[in-house]
Amino acid sequence: MAKRAQSWVVTDAFWQRVEPLLPQRPAAPHKKYLRKPGAGRPPKPARQVFEAIVYVLRTGCQWKALPRERFGSASAVHKRFLEWEEAGFFESLWKSGLAEYDAMAGIAWRWQSVDGAMMKAPLAQEAVGPNPTDRGKKRKQASPAGGRPWRPLVAHRDRGER
Fold it and tell me: What is the pLDDT, as a whole number, of residue 98?
C-alpha cells in the first residue's frame, strides 16, 4: 500500500504544473550591490516557499507559527508570498487550475451562481432593537441632581503658570 502524502506536501507532479507559473526574481535596478553577485545568503528554493504557503493555507496557522526546521524563516516565506501575490502568481495558478479541471470534467458555466453579503445589514439594528445583553449598561450619562452639570470651581490653569 502506497504511503499517502501530507495535505501540504507538494508532489513532483503538482510542482511540474506550478513551476512554469512562478514569476522570476529580477535584481532590483535601483539597488547598488556592494558585494560580489552570489555572495550572502542564497534565496530559499521556490518549491520550499510554495510548500510553506500551502502549509499555511491547509493548516490555518499563522505565518510566525511555520515550523522553522522544515520551512526556515517565516518572514522570508511571507515576503516571497507578498512578491508572488503582487506578480499575479496565485491568480494565474487559479486560472490554470480551472482550465485544467474544465478540460478534465467540464465546468457547467451556465449553472454557476454567486451569493453573499459583504456588509452589515443597514436596517438590522432598527428591526431587532437593543442588544438584550446590554440591559444594565447606561446609555447616556445622566445629569446630576439639580440638573446642572458638574464644573470645577477653580478656573483652568496652564501648567507653565506658577
Answer: 87
Calculate mean pLDDT across residues 127-155.
Answer: 63
Please list, in sequence order, all residues whose beta carbon lies within 8 angstroms of the beta carbon of residue 55, skipping any fewer than 6 positions away.
8, 61, 66, 67, 71
16 — pLDDT class (breaks 50, 70, 90): very high
Residues in the chain: 162
Give the residue from 97, 94, 113 showing the smallest Cα distance to 105: 97
* Helix (H), strand (E) at residue 86: helix 74-87
Query: If we measure between CA atoms, which residue out of 89, 88, 81 comes closest to residue 22?
Result: 89
- CB of 51 within 8 A of CB of 71? yes
Q: Torsions phi, psi of 137, nearest 5? A: -85, 145
The three grid cell numbers given for residue 74, joined into one nine-digit string: 517565516
CA distances from 92 to 41, 56, 57 (A): 29, 19, 17
